[in-house]
Amino acid sequence: MAPADLCALLHGYQKQIDMLKIYCIGIIVLLIAILANVLASVIGVMSWYDAVTGLQKNGWASLKDWSWKDYVWLFVLYPVILGAAAYYGLKLYDLIVK
């Protein structure tokens, strides 16, 4: 086997590993996002779906109808939760690969 062939083989293997990593992170983020949307409904804050729907119907004027809790949820807590989900998705990948 020529060195170029070996490099191509290893490069293809690396792409498969990268896809597995992306998949693990994506699945965990998806599941946590679903749970976060349920939590948003339970605690009475706006989800991104609600926010976008309001913007489509009423334009920027809908922003004045948001409570401070909606802003904190959408721009602070929700991104932190999804960021943590991505971190744990990467940890899941590490467990699978090792």
If you had to describe this structure to a student in words, what would you say it looks like?
With 98 residues, the protein is mainly α. The chain contains three helices and no strands. The protein has helices at residues 3-43, 48-58, 68-97. The mean pLDDT is 87. Helices cover 84% and strands 0% of the residues. The radius of gyration is 20 Å and the shape is elongated. It has one domain (20-97).
Estimate percent helicity: over 70%
Largest sheet: none
What is the mean predicted local confidence, pLDDT? 87
Please count the beta strands (DSSP E, at least 2 residues each).
0
Oligomer: single chain
Order of SSEs: HHH
Structural class: mainly alpha
Radius of gyration, whole Å: 20 Å
The backbone outline, from C-alpha atoms, is elongated
Terminal residue distance: 28 Å
Number of domains: 1
Number of helices: 3
Residue stretches low in confidence (pLDDT < 50, at least 5 long) are none
- How much β-strand is present in the residues? under 5%
A few lines on this structure:
The chain has helices at residues 3-43, 48-58, 68-97. It has 98 residues and is mainly alpha-helical. The longest helix has 41 residues, at 3-43.
What's the SSE blueprint?
Layout: H1 3-43, H2 48-58, H3 68-97
Helix pairs in contact: 1-3
Please tag this protein with its features:
98 residues; mainly alpha
